[in-house]
Write a structure and sequence with these properties.
Layout (H helix, E strand, L loop, with lengths): L2 E11 L4 E7 L2 E15 L1 H8 L4 H5 E4 L2 E4 L7 E2 L4 E10 L2 E18 L5 E9 L8 H4 L3 E10 L40 H15 L2
Antiparallel strand pairs: 1-3, 1-10, 2-3, 3-9, 4-5, 6-8, 7-8, 7-10, 8-9
Length: 208
């Protein structure tokens, strides 16, 4: 499972923090949606957050003696997946040192920068406890963030894998040979795109 590990670095909390009540079983617990931006990622961290080993070369190219965004006219991109089981630490900027556990990281937006770094913004879904900062304290705070999380995988269908012979197809006459990723039981990790292709193949098999 892909893991994201961001060491302590500057960040800024947005202009509004949403508060709500969540149901955890039969218990009502407070929840907060904390928008954070200005998180700088290096190439390795970019690959981790996108779940793609080739993300850095896809985002950047060499221009003279420095890396620049490969597509200058491209708007910042939002990832479709999110991370869960996150441990998030916030400190500085007038905030008490705070650790949120079992948080989620969603609405991840990436913006490549000249020099090969990427700016990340996201929304942290946390469950504050007594003594944690209020929404008013968090708003517009310039702070430091440390984050560890795991990629949240989509639930797979409870159907057996399709046989990978040359006579099977994913739709109208498209051979599966070389298209469908390896069996998920293999030791090789599978990228997010690979999992999407596999699910598409399974759905095509059901329609026959």
């Amino acid at each position: 499972m892909q893991k994201l590990n961001l060491t302590k670095r500057p960040a800024k909390i947005g202009k509004s923090v949403n508060t709500r009540t969540e149901m955890h079983g039969k218990d009502e617990v407070p929840g907060q949606d904390i928008p954070v931006h200005g998180i700088v990622l290096n190439a390795e961290e970019l690959c981790a957050v996108t779940d793609e080993d080739t993300a850095a070369t896809g985002f950047f190219k060499m221009d003279g003696d420095q890396y620049v965004p490969r597509i200058l006219a491209l708007n910042p991109g939002t990832l479709s997946h999110k991370f869960s089981n996150a441990t998030v630490k916030l400190s500085g900027g007038g905030l008490p040192a705070t650790t949120y556990k079992n948080a989620k990281v969603k609405s991840i937006v990436l913006e490549p920068q000249t020099g090969g770094m990427t700016l990340m913004s996201c929304t942290l879904q946390v469950n504050p406890e007594n003594g944690d900062p209020s929404a008013q304290q968090l708003i517009n705070a310039k702070c430091s963030i440390t984050l560890k999380a795991e990629l949240e995988l989509e639930a797979d269908d409870d159907q057996p894998d399709l046989p990978l012979d040359h006579q099977q197809s994913a739709g109208d006459g498209v051979p599966l040979d070389g298209l469908v990723p390896p069996d998920p039981d293999d030791d090789q990790p599978m990228s997010g795109i690979g999992r999407q292709v596999q699910r598409a193949a399974r759905k095509a098999g059901k329609k026959k």
